[in-house]
Amino acid sequence: MKYNVVVIGSGPGGYIAAIRCAQLGMKVAIIEKYDVLGGTCTNVGCIPSKALLDSSEHYHNAEKAFEEHGITTKGLSFDFKKMVDRKNGVVKANNDGIAFLMKKNKIDTYFGTGSFVTKNKVAVTNSKGEKTEIEGEKIIIATGSKPTQLPFIKVDKKRIITSTEALTLSEVPKHLIIIGGGIIGVELGSVYKRLGSKVTVVEFLDKIVPSMDDEVGKELLRVLRKQGMEFMLSTKVTGASVKGKEVTVTAENKTGEKVELKGDYCLVAVGRVPFTEGLNLEAVGVAKDERGRIAVNDNLETNVPGIYALGDVVRGAMLAHKAEEEGVYLAEILAGQKPHIHYNLIPGVAYTWPEAASVGATEQELKQKGVAYKSGKFPFRALGRARASGDLDGFVKILASKETDEILGVHIIGARAADLIIEGVVAMEYRASAEDIARMSHPHPTYTEAFKEACLMATESRPLNM
Ligand code: FAD
Ligand code: NAD
Asked: Which of 54, 145, 184 to probe ligand 2 with, by most ligand atoms within 8 A of CB?
């Protein structure tokens, strides 16, 4: 079969690129090596982790927060298997939704591993070993990423696990040791802490969630510690081994002191690396960069004309919505349009409770670049809405240009930060000043009022409710 576009990989980058190409009149095929569509995000990433975060949060609230609201829960318990089954059902509904979208947009789906034969021909080998060859005028590589391995730790996928296995455990760990205090560490750590595990996070740096603004990281650390998670910062893991049901993790802190931890599971969450195995890139000479990512130009084209790449397999944040934006962008480039992506305006979120979210420059980045800025910060505990719900932790922090008042960065930790952050994205897309936002009516009582108040703080240091 011949197509205008062949997409390899059905994650959020690949399937969204396929849909947009089809909308723009192209004949499209998508290849997926697993027997379900949706990639990491749908199957072992965003969706299942959020399903378990939601279930565990309900339990946590029933156990810890309901009483304050006058609600008593006698004999409270949970059925972990049912939680995991529900999560599987949520994933399946998303798989089916994407399959429906492929049909609706008349995109041909091929299940099997895609590998280059020539620059316009891809062989698809399915699980039975059967091979089909398809041709594309343009090929899009959207093969995503996989968990980073530490060379000195063997992940056996039973006791020493990655995020993939952590989403399908058959029991709640007694003591979960997590290597890495990044986004996966804090999210999956939260799930199991809420369900009763002892959770110890061992982090190499002196802070958690290093991609976020330092003040947000500090507040998140404080709140998670208050919730009972344990953190060992500035501590380098040196090994992990399994004996029966026991995992031993060895580490060294910055003073050279040796540490030994014993648990029943160890989650290795030290980042992700681009995934290109099986693509046979050598056959066509597609170049990679120094970090093993497929090298692309501003149009997401590789060094081989007609072959493109996007999402986790190329440079930039490893986020589903970044991959999606690139999918739309690339399809429109292929259709001869002139789209744009503001990479600086791709928000990042940690779905802990409270949530943490950010867009634009962090304070440490502005300092490093020598940008003159002002900062406005407003704590949620000063808001009526936050008092009503009892979600008092956190703040909104606005960073604005000292010279022009233009908003340069928004950093939020607090209730519903994941949804609040879009106000920062819209403001920055339209290059709003802090005063522009401060003069807009925000509904009362809502968490959004903290955004307005932080803008008032940034623009003129004149909050109304503090
Ligand atoms: P992927 O989603 O990785 O999809 C790539 C697909 O390509 C896979 O299905 C793979 O099987 C297929 N493939 C690979 N090689 C071949 C081949 N040769 N032939 C055919 N098919 C192939 N991001 C967020 O924005 N929000 C979140 O809340 C979030 N939570 C996450 C939680 C976890 C636990 C993890 C691990 C990740 C999370 N992410 C989240 C990150 C997000 O999942 C990724 O950024 C996103 O999935 C990247 O999309 P992609 O399309 O580039 O690749
Ligand atoms: P990460 O890059 O967020 O964090 C990895 C952490 O591990 C860092 O803090 C790093 O300092 C630490 N680390 C590295 N080596 C170590 C060692 N030897 N010992 C101790 N600590 C060590 O990576 P992640 O948490 O694995 O997540 C992977 C990717 O998936 C991220 O890029 C993230 O964007 C994406 N993701 C996103 C979401 C979301 O958007 N909510 C959720 C989960 C994952």
From this structure: 184
